[in-house]
Amino acid sequence: MANQTLGLAPNLYQYFQTVSVRESEILKQLRQETAKHPMAMMQIAPEQGQFMALLVQLMGAKKTLDIGVFTGYSALVVALALPPDGQIIACDVDEETTKIAQHYWEKAGVANKIDLRIAPALETLDKLIGEGQSNTFDFAFIDADKSNYDNYYEKALWLVREGGLIAVDNVLWGGKVAESEIQDNRTQKIRAFNEKLHQDPRINLSLVPIADGLTLALKK
Q: Which pTM was predicted?
């Protein structure tokens, strides 16, 4: 897991951020608070958040999914990019970390755009499908427990419209996916997931080596 782009020398990464990242003050405050958390490595990199916001704006997205909230940076950066009538359904099980998220969503004035569902994400996604919301979402971001990536992806494929985009975080997994001697369960799950998407005819695919690897799957 990495909260900055892999493979760049420190001076090049600093330069890259200096000339590229335009992080708002509220996003910077949230990132700085999250840096104090024991699981701070779960925070997405600012350059990744900015890239996702740009994608959402390019698509003209209005309805999105955030699967795995943590302290709320991904939901916040997308909410700020959405139009006033935009909506995010955000899925997480941790009431403590999402309290931090809610504080910053309120502070940024976008809490009205974010519908936080505290429940196992698969239950929330199944409920949305059961409510007839399949093919209605423009964008989905998956960044929850790695063992369920395939399940989240399949549910997101139901929910995202044709031409909609699914973004999946941590697909390079700190470089572990390329180390054949590493065979722990999560690494194997991510390898299998990456191989599945590479062969999946239902999508157009690009794996972008930003932050810890971000897969973009465009539903056909």
A: 0.96
